[in-house]
Amino acid sequence: MNDPDIIRLYLERSEAAVSETKTKYGSYLRTIALRILSDFRDAEEAESDAYLKAWNTIPPEEPKSLKAYVGRLCRNSAIDIYRRASREKRGGGAYEEAFCELDALTSGADVAEAAVNGVAFSEAVNAFLRALPERKRRMFVQRYWYFMTAAEIAKDNYTTKAAVDMQLSRLRASFGEYLKREGLYYENRADA
Asked: Is 123 helix (H, G, I), strand (E, B) or coil?
């Protein structure tokens, strides 16, 4: 079933919408959640949350891309589950590692997290990505949206882990410079 038909099922409030979404995008959503959570049960919870949120938000929302929409819902649910678990026990993971890399660009304790949720930051990320060549854009998105490791990105892009590490380092530096130009770079306020 294609996306417009599935969206129509949501708009008609047909319960088949959820099962069709699961059939078409279940594996995709689990992959997103597992990259963040590294626990199958938690990933299933994030996936289920995404279906529930889709059911509760369509309508009034009518997404242009169902895949992107439910992917974002699942990602946000997985991040919420991760944060909840992190409050109880501190630990590393792909999400935390990738976020720390971007957090270094803003050098504030909670500033990056607040900025990521902000509209201006979102628009800046989108503009930055649009300006990148396709291969660099894909690597950036694979690392900071899908939380893939450098080794996974290397395999997917037929290159070496060292080349990916170098490319990501350059992309972060370039992104930091872009944020400075856009007035979204936050200096360390520890001395203030």
From this structure: helix
